[in-house]
Amino acid sequence: MSYDVVVIGSGPGGYVCAIRCAQLGMKTAIVERYSTLGGTCLNVGCIPSKALLDSSERYHSTVHSHDVHGIMVKDVKLDLPKMMSRVQNVVDSTCKGIDFLMKKNKIDVIQGHGSFKDKNTLSVKKEDGSSEEVSFKKAVIATGSKPASFPGMEIDKKRVISSTEALKLQEVPKHLIVIGGGVIGLELGSVYRRLGAEVSVIEYMDGIIGMMDKELGKNLQKVMKKEGINFYLGHKVENVTNEGKSVKVKATDMKKDKAIELDGDYCLVSVGRKPYTDNLGLKNIGIELDERGRIPTDEHLQTNQGHIFAIGDVIKGSMLAHKAEEEGVFVAEYMAGQKPHIDYNLVPGVVYTWPEVASVGLSEEQLKEQGKSYKKGSFPFKALGRARASEESDGFIKVLADDQTDEILGVHMIGPRCADLISEAVLSMEYKASAEDIARTCHAHPTYTEAFKEACLAATENRSLHM
């Protein structure tokens, strides 16, 4: 079998890259080691977690929030296996959609673990032990990432679990201990808190969602604490022990130099992810990993072998599905002789807790570090008619703009529907909009998007109309 392009890995980066290659007239194949396409995102990541978040939000609202709307509900029962079955159905239908797209675009799907035999040959090992060789003119490595852990908190997939196992639990934990106050830990911690679990979050840093603007982390912690989640910030985990039917976590409060011990029935280790490059045969083609296990690439996402590219979680940058997709399209178009472009500053980040958190561009801390002169405008959702009508008034939108030119430099939001609202900010910044440009754009009333306009008004000579 010989191809113009072989893509290794069928996650969002890989399958999108393969589709764009096929659209551009290249004979394309995609190699996937697992039985279903879609990678971590579709199978054990973005899609199942969002399905579970949605189900848990509906359950929590039914139990705790409907009465304020005059809807009286009693004797509500949770059927967790059925909830998990729905999540799996969502995953299955989404993965089948990728199968359809491969057929539609005439992309050959080769099942098995691919590794480089030489610079133009891939050896694909099948589940039955057999193997086949695939030759290519160009290749794209899109093998994604896997959960990371540190010494003392090794994942056993039973009581000490990763996000993969957390998405398939068949019981609500009595006490879920979450190590890591990042996106994955907070999303899954919020799921099980809504379903009735006691949840404790242990974080090494002094704040949660540390990669985002600090105001967002402080506000989210305040809301989640109100919902009953316990936080242990500035704590270093020493070790995690599986006790059979329970788990014990020992940590040190670094500020007080004091040891603490938590007992739970599950411990979710969510301290980040690491590139998945196992048994890829990279040494056979002269590719060496960097100090963090990533594949080095240039500005065109080429490795030191010019005809071999790498995208997504295996290279530097944020580990986000939409970042990988953009890189997949970029590589396909570059291989076709086009001149694509990615502005990594405009790749948004989202936390799908409730309220949702979203951010794009530079944070206030980054602007201060860079010595940039800026102005800011902020608008709370509690002052927004649509948010009050929906009983969703937690949070705010903050706009940071250049003090001289008024160009928007960063937008940071926490509140209802922020995962969708952030796209307006991304589009605005892609076209170098000023805060006044948005302030003078008519927004439908009543909508959540008005909060963005109001924040821009606040950044423009403090002209907010509803504050």
Which descriptors would you attach to this protein?
alpha/beta; 7-stranded mixed sheet; 467 residues; Enolase-like, domain 1; single chain; FAD/NAD(P)-binding domain; globular; 3 domains
Outline type: globular
| Average pLDDT level | 96
* Beta content: 25-35%
Secondary structure tally, helices: 13
Per-chain topology:
Layout: E1 2-8, H1 12-23, E2 28-32, H2 39-44, H3 46-64, H4 80-104, E3 108-111, E4 113-118, E5 121-125, E6 131-141, E7 145-147, E8 160-161, H5 163-166, E9 175-179, H6 183-194, E10 198-203, H7 214-226, E11 230-233, E12 235-242, E13 247-253, E14 258-264, E15 266-269, E16 273-275, E17 308-310, H8 321-335, E18 349-351, E19 356-361, H9 364-369, E20 374-380, H10 385-389, E21 396-402, E22 408-415, H11 418-430, H12 435-439, H13 450-459
Helix pairs in contact: 1-8, 3-4, 3-6
